[in-house]
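Batch job 17 of 40 flagged for manual review because the log was empty.
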Amino acid sequence: LRVDNAADEELFRVNANGKVGIGTNNPDSLLHLYSATSPTIHLQDTTQNTKLKLYAQDSSSVIGNYSNHRMNFVTNSLSRIQLTNDGKIQIGLPGNSEGLAGGTSVVNIRAMSGGNLHIRPSSDLQGSTTGIGIDSLNDAGNAITDLVLRGATTYFRNSSAETLRIKNTGE
């Protein structure tokens, strides 16, 4: 099936295998957009005017929210990562930037060098019933690795009081 405009130029086609090509006569996937001017898929919900765009533009690929709404990354029907409309990133937390209660037990960040940073309830590390724990583990057997904190001055606090300060001079 081929659809042309009044000037007999092809607008889009549906091949015998069901693949749809817009801007191409040889689509290689179910929907193939082909253009030199940022081919875009635009999804819009009219209830709250939420807009999502997916496009390729010159030297970058973009997935973007083009309305004042948060963006969720979902697996198994659950929001796992959320980019809020005010620019905050939440990993493993439900809700929005105003409420952070009910988070998951562990956030894992994999470093390019093969190490993993785990942020978890402190009860997982030291048996404490409250708080948060941080450990650095390797990929192979989750052996503990070095955790490096870097700053001109590093502060450790207990509640609101400073308990330890390490300056860049080592004092």
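Reviewer: the log was empty due to a logging misconfiguration, but the result itself is present. The helical segments are 123-126. Unflagging and moving on to job 18.
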